Every structure is written in structure tokens, then in C-alpha cells.
Amino acid sequence: MKYYSTNNPEHRVGLSEAVIKGLAPDQGLYMPETIPVLSTELIQKLPEMSFREIGYAVIGALFSEDLSQSQIKELVDHTLVFDAPVVKVEEDVYSLELFHGPTLAFKDFGARFCSKLMSLLLAGSEKKVRVLVATSGDTGSAVANGFLGVEGVEVIILFPKGKVSQLQEKQFTTLGQNITALEVDGVFDDCQRMVKEAFLDPELNQSLLLTSANSINIARWIPQALYYFYAWSRLPKTGKKIVFSVPSGNFGNLGAGILAQRMGLPIDYFVAATNVNKVVPDYLSGECFLAKPSIQTISNSMDVGNPSNFSRLIALFGGDESLLREKVKGYFYDDSETVGAIQKVKALGYVLDPHGAVGYLGLKDFMKENPGFVGVFLETAHPGKFHEVVEEALGLQLELPDRLAQFLKGKKNVLSLGKDFGDFKEFLKKLEA
């Protein structure tokens, strides 16, 4: 299979280059040139299949031209080592819990898949790979733990100073080994811009092998489609239409859901739920897409003013923006509304994190306007990762899972950096020695 750039469909590369380069030379994101459609017979069998069996079928359809069956099995087995249960919260409303992995966030799926695929593609190579990652929270911890100790790979994580929760920060600043954390005096969009500029800098790319493990990389993005197939397979079959509400920042997760839909999964609608960083909900309501400076909120992993994966949303609908606006509905919420949702759902016996709360609100508003649906919202992180916010909202102390509590005991080790690309470039040039 070939992969094309969203900025230039004529630019096409193979799987290895798409994964190792991460970003096309014209700053476009790579997309598969064809999206395979699973048979109706296979879709109907999904409820009888295990998570891994679903993974073999979906990943096999996408990668069988480039990987052997044994490699596909190895990839899926390495990725799907934890569950993603669908939990009923109230009538016709379900939470897809994506926080049962090692860093208790949905990005564990993509990070584990990405690290394993890169190791397969780089087998036999003697050149060290530098993985550059911009994070507003969970990406950094998932990628750091997914790549920790992987031979021949060095991970460099850029994160905005003072804008990441303490637990998220501890999960990638205390590991050491092949993980380096850079604390940037700016916002997430500055971190993301610096990473993109590094990929496009001729001098750096002449001497360093740079790649990305953000959702701009297909190896991080595509495997997220797996849990949409799994969630759909575990929903009760009532005959009602189905909507998925996705709390969104960089919009890779929503794009992965649409990819699953394009592969034949019968999801009727999607909700793009954001905090006040609402450039995509504004666009979906009919405005032009206009990137804006990000605003800090309590759902900090979604504090993105210029989402990279927006171009993928357009590409997934074949460039038809009217169809995108028809099938994806946008809603946004401020911090007080987010806290209100956490409090309301706790009364139902379920504890939300701030991002899941935004997803819940979007789902409820969609279902209010469109009766007769079964809805799923993505609970993207364990509430303990944002325990300060959740505890203040609920007036109680959460019991942290052992894995989170252990991270808090670690010693933070970071390097400080300004938001000018020149400073980052000088840092990277020193790695050549």
C-alpha cells in the first residue's frame, strides 16, 4: 500500500517511509491511498470475536501488503494486552473506558503499536532514530512508556511549562534511560510547531534520523480505530442508530473513528466535543477553519488551537466538507460545565475525568437534539490522572491506582527551553556528536 500526503495526493511513499518520516516533506499528513472495506459478514461476526481477533482482521486488511501474517499478529498481540470495556452509565449511554493500559490513557494503544511497528521496520538498521513528541499531557506519558528501553531509539518530549498535570508530567519526566523531557516556555501549539519545523529542516535531517510518535504519524493514528470496532461489537444490538462522542484536541482520535466507519463499521454519527479551544466546532457550524492561540483549561490534553489532524478529517470524507459537517456534529464546553458534568455523573455512580466529562456533555446534547440513538462517549483517561480537578469538583479524595502513585514518587528531570525553534535546533544538533 502507498500513503499520500494530505497536501499533495501525488506525493506517495511506502509504509516504512511514512512511519519513519512521520510527516510528509510538504507538511502534509500521510493517508492510505485506499481504505479497505470489511465484508458485511465479518462485521456481523464481530460480537463473537475477541479484541485480538478483531485486531488481526482490521490490521490485516490495512497492512497485509507490507507485513507478514506473523508480523501482524506480533503487532496486535503487543498492542492489545489490556481491555477497553464498554460500561453502561445510564439508559442508552455508555462509556468506552480507554484507560486500562500502562499509563492509564487511550494513547497507550497507539504508542505500543507505534513502537513495535518501528522496531519491525528498523530491524537491521544501525542508525539511531530520534522520536520527537509534542505533548499537552497524555501523549508524552504514553509514548515515553511505550518506547522506554527500545534499542536504537531515543525519545525527546516537548511539553508546555506549567500546563500539564503533575501526574502526567511525572509519567514522562522521571523515566530516564532513552527518554529526554524538554520543558518549553510556551503552549502546546509552540511545542507542536517546533517539532514540525525540525522535521522540515534540511540541515537536521541530513545528519539525524527524525520521526514522530504524535498522532500525525500513521503508526500512532491508525491503531486507534481498533477500539471503535471493539466497542461497537460489545454494544447491545437494539436496532437504534449509534453515535460516538469523542473528546477532541488534536483530532486524531476522532479521525480514527471515522476511519473505522469508512472501513464498514456501522456508526451513524460522530460528535466532536471540545473545551473552549473550539476551532473545529466553529468550523462544523459553518465557519471557516481558523487556527487560534490555545486557551488553558482543566481538560488540558485538549488545549489545542491548531489541530494537526484536521486535514485528515477532510481527507476521510474525500474532500467533501459538506458531508463532514453532516456526519460530525461539534459542541464545546467551558470549565464550569465540565465540573458540572463530573458532579452530575458521580450521582449516577460513575466518576469522569475532565476529558470524558466533555465527551459526555457532547453526547447528551446530541441525543437531546436527535432522539432514538444509543450513544458512546470515550473516557480517555483515568480520573486519577487529573485527581486535583476531580477531587475539588467532588469534594472527596480519590484512591490512586498503584501505577499512578508510583510515578508520583519519581524525581523529575527536565531541560528548559524557549519557544524559539533556533533553541530547539541547537539542542538537536548537539545530538550528532
Proportion of residues in helical segments: 40-55%
* Strands ordered across the widest β-sheet: 4-5-13-10-11-12
Question: How would you sum up the global shape?
Answer: globular
Strand segment tally: 14
Report the C-alpha radius of gyration, rounded.
20 Å
- Characterize the main sheet: 6 strands, mixed
Tag the structure with descriptive keywords.
Rossmann fold; 6-stranded mixed beta sheet; 20 helices; 17% strand; globular; 433 residues; 43% helix; 14 strands
SSE layout and pairing:
Layout: E1 3-5, E2 8-13, H1 15-21, E3 30-32, H2 40-45, H3 51-63, H4 69-79, E4 86-90, E5 93-97, H5 107-121, E6 129-134, H6 138-147, E7 153-160, H7 166-173, E8 179-184, H8 188-200, H9 202-207, E9 209-212, H10 218-221, H11 226-234, E10 241-247, H12 252-262, E11 269-274, H13 279-284, H14 310-316, H15 321-327, E12 328-332, H16 335-346, H17 354-369, E13 373-379, H18 387-394, H19 402-408, E14 415-417, H20 421-429
Parallel strand pairs: 5-13, 6-7, 6-9, 7-8, 8-14, 10-11, 10-13, 11-12
Antiparallel strand pairs: 1-2, 1-3, 4-5
Helix pairs in contact: 3-4, 3-11, 4-5, 5-6, 6-7, 12-14, 16-17, 16-18
Structure write-up:
The two termini are 36 Å apart. The protein is 43% helix and 17% strand. The strands form three sheets. Strands 4-5-13-10-11-12 form a six-stranded mixed β-sheet, with helices on both faces. Strands 9-6-7-8-14 form a five-stranded parallel β-sheet, sandwiched between helices. It has a three-stranded antiparallel β-sheet with strand order 2-1-3. It has 433 residues and is of the alpha/beta class. α7 (166-173) links the parallel β7 (153-160) and β8 (179-184). It has a domain at 82-105 and 222-394: Rossmann fold, CATH 3.40.50.
